[in-house]
């Protein structure tokens, strides 16, 4: 947080605290860096002299102190002391070291999606505590968020609304910052925790783009855009854009709750953090995609492909092509095949051996069947000839030509 020297008109001591530097100034007063006798540093806010006599501003200041007292947890700066009856009312909170979100983006540029989600998750959790205390901040914006080493802190509840409090706003009184106001604030309608959700979405968009989602311009132009135009989220990371868009819904009832925001942003922050610097193939899959299938890589992948090719029917109707596969990926025989046995050396034979053995077996069977068929055919022909020979008339015998008696 930027510090400035004390000016001549600034007090040097307020209550039990000695003031050392100026931390900033707002519409209601000036904030100083002070310390007590024990050395505890505080951020001490004093109402401006010209406003100290205005009862409305005194009431608003008292409201801020009341809101700070009601909120529990580490999301805000802890209230240390206050004096609402002094000539210039003041209160002191624990000093939070670190820049505001506005200054961090202005000086260092836009934040990565993982960092925006992480800050957003902590802020949403802080808003849960704020709203549980019955308080609506009404002016949540980058300059009211301090980035301490222990996490972001929400400050400046100057125009906060508490349950049961009356409305102090009148014409001409600022009730927030253009570009971060919710549409219901612009219309003058009742504020609810959803009002802070709208400002929360605009704040996340600023962290990711260094600009309001409704651009720049005069207060009138900005307020018109908030009520009537859609936000420009072109520069918001894809992981955050849907959630930010939901926060910026015109209808308060359509915005997510702070509990939903805290849970969802914590998931996004964890996922984005795991994805930083990791190889693309190792990035976690979305839950809807299910577990990643286990597939071989490298040489195993080639063997896997050959094995799948061998399983497909070949042109002869056999189980495959008989392609060669290395010993690391044994062939898977079809049910009709004889299981492959290991040889005497203990190593599995090549997967081509079953194919050659089957071919030899088929050749032997073919030869045997052919021989048997030939024998059967020959036997049938022999029997047929034998039967025809038995029924035929006897052939005339040829007697030897012997000399007979003369004259015969």
UniProtKB/TrEMBL annotation:
Biased composition (Basic and acidic residues): 272-284
Residue ranges annotated for the Protein kinase domain, each copy included: 17-268
Coiled-coil positions: none
Domain of life: Bacteria
Transmembrane residue ranges: 363-380
Segments for region (Disordered): 272-353
An MF annotation (GO) of this entry: ATP binding
Cell cycle in keyword set: no
Bias (Gly residues): 316-325
Keyword Kinase assigned: yes
SMART domains in the cross-refs: S_TKc
Annotated binding of ATP, by residue: 45
Gene3D superfamilies: Phosphorylase Kinase, domain 1 (3.30.200.20), Transferase(Phosphotransferase) domain 1 (1.10.510.10)
UniProt entry keywords in alphabetical sequence: ATP-binding, Kinase, Membrane, Nucleotide-binding, Serine/threonine-protein kinase, Transferase, Transmembrane, Transmembrane helix
Protein name: Serine/threonine protein kinase
Lineage: Bacteria, Bacillati, Actinomycetota, Actinomycetes, Kitasatosporales
